[in-house]
Amino acid sequence: MTSFISDWIWSERFWLPENVSWADLENPPPGVEYPKLGHMVYALPLAVGILLSRLLFERLVAKPCAHILQIQAGVPRRVQPNAVLEKLYQSNTSPSSRDLEGLSKQLDWDERKIQRWFRVRRNQDKPSMQTKFCESMWRFTFYLLIFIYGLSQLWVSPWMWDTRQCWHNYPFQHRSPGQFYYYLAELAFYSSLMFSQFTDIRRKDFFIMFVHHLATILLITFSYTNNMVRVGTMIMSLHDASDIFLEAAKLANYAKYQRLCDSMFVVFTLIFFLTRLVVFPFWVIYSVLFESWEIVGPYRAWWLLNGLLLVLQCLHVIWFYLIARIAIKAIFKGKVAKDDRSDVESSSDEDVYSNSHGNPNHKKT
């Protein structure tokens, strides 16, 4: 039964071009290495290592940096213990007017007092500015390092400058050690993100990001297994480029350097536009759609992967629209506006970028 399921999932007729079998990829010529699914198993212990590295990084590097920048952990105000309200809070953090009316009669409390209790209770769950700073500093560091490494691998690769070489002799293409380590690091990082979502800052789009991380993991795994490594490394590098500046904008905001935050967000918007709305569709997707059709020919997985890339491109357009609205406000109003991916709700509706807007004494750079 297990063998049948495995054969169905990894059907050669689905994943590989016509007249190519998995057996053909099992024994490469001397000096040549082909990707294998078993290679990705190493990503699991590496993901654990990344999680441990993050803990050490936040404790030994990020927190001292936060102290230097005078970003304090802060102690949230505690609510008056109340078993009835706490029980409701666990299932509904923002009770309706009908709930408030019922609670007011049950506890003999004024409705405003109950609303205040829930507002303060939500603030208790809100992570401190220092916690958010440490999380963003870790992501900024990883994205910067992995982008530099990925770009160093691509820069000397002929298929970066001539995408048709992504498909010459496909799928019998040598996989270099550098490509392997790049794939392994990306897969381990996104695996660690999926796991750490349950302990990180809780965001409104928790489920959407969980699905996003899971889809990313599956796409990385599948593209490696059927040896779409050349185009896969380009896609990963393009997506990492803009994330560096997004995390930099967050760091500047948490440190209350508002002008730097606004500048970094505008740069992020421009890089996002160039990489995901110009290079990605007109360089990468064009190659996967048309050049691979011409050189390799379509097969079942080809339709699936192209469909996923086109869906991803549609998401890029939607995301850029939302990002551009924020960037335009940063340019013309001098501040980055509310981010839809805000943290846990607070009494002031504080979000990732709007912490310092109400403070006339916030730092400028």
SSE arrangement:
Blueprint: H1 2-9, H2 12-15, H3 22-26, H4 43-68, H5 83-91, H6 97-107, H7 111-125, H8 129-155, H9 158-161, H10 177-196, H11 206-225, H12 229-254, H13 258-295, H14 300-333
Helix pairs in contact: 4-8, 4-10, 8-10, 8-12, 10-11, 10-12, 12-13, 13-14
Entry keywords:
single chain, 365 residues, mainly alpha, 68% helix, elongated
**Ends distance:** 64 Å
Helix content: 55-70%
| Rg calc | 24 Å
Largest sheet composition: none
Element order: H for helix, E for strand? HHHHHHHHHHHHHH
- Find the count of extended strands (DSSP E, 2+ residues): 0
- Kindly report the average pLDDT value: 84
Uncertain residue ranges? 338-365
- Overall geometric form: elongated
Number of helices: 14
User: Hey, roughly how much beta strand do the residues contain?
Assistant: under 5%
Going by helix content, strand content and strand pairing, the class is mainly alpha
Oligomer: single chain
In short:
The chain contains 14 helices and no strands. It has 365 residues and is mainly alpha-helical. Helix 8 (129-155) packs antiparallel against helix 10 and helix 12 (229-254) packs antiparallel against helix 13.
What does this structure look like?
The protein has helices at 2-9, 12-15, 22-26, 43-68, 83-91, 97-107, 111-125, 129-155, 158-161, 177-196, 206-225, 229-254, 258-295, 300-333. The chain has 365 residues and is an all-alpha fold. Helix 8 runs antiparallel to helix 12 and helix 13 (258-295) packs antiparallel against helix 14. The protein is elongated and about 80 Å long.
